[in-house]
Amino acid sequence: MPGELEPSWKEILINELQDDYMLELREFLKNEQKNGHIIYPPNRLIFNAFNHTPFDEVKIVILGQDPYHGQQQAHGLSFSVQNGVPVPPSLQNIFKELKRDIPGFHMPAHGDLTAWADQGVLLLNATLTVESSKPGSHQKRGWEKFTDKVIAELSRRRSGIVFMLWGKYAQSKAGLIDSSKHYILTAAHPSPLSAHNGFVGCRHFSKANEYLKNRGLTEINWQL
User: Fold this and answer.
1) In the annotation, is 56 catalytic?
2) Which of 66, 101, 112, 148 is catalytic?
3) Which of 23, 68, 181, 212 could staple 73 via S-S, CB 3.0–4.6 A?
């Protein structure tokens, strides 16, 4: 079952966590594991994004859709993989854009984005679990309702957050965000299938840092 949620998030999401749909989701995950299905990420890492980025420390949200479904890949942070695992194609394209966008950025030897999360980048997937080798297998089980609430609460209770929405799915969440209080950046998804349609050259990373700087906040050090 999902590990404990970081206290600031737990306080805000306590009603969601106790709602019937979340209890049903927990039961579903428990039964899947009891029946021998391998679930990613491991239970203790399902809420990893929240545990590295407390509610009041969120500066940027990068929204993904699903965890990676391969062995040792997913660790609860969108687009990120555990150290020692080959960097997936979408993340390679993210790094290439950073190299174009951020002076002095050099390509990392790994795909672990924990250092971003610890600086206030909430790496949020809309669905927080997946069955091994079955992409999308845990969609429409309740996670999307939970993570929609996360986005809505950030929008409502905070101001000045940068939301990076890459691809049509992420952009479908824009309606949850008050654009008069927050900075929404949209582009194509960094997947090799679509990156050339507008992700390449989007310069979201420097734009986000410029916005943070103008608000008197510490910029993100994107170098890993």
Assistant:
1) no
2) 66
3) 68
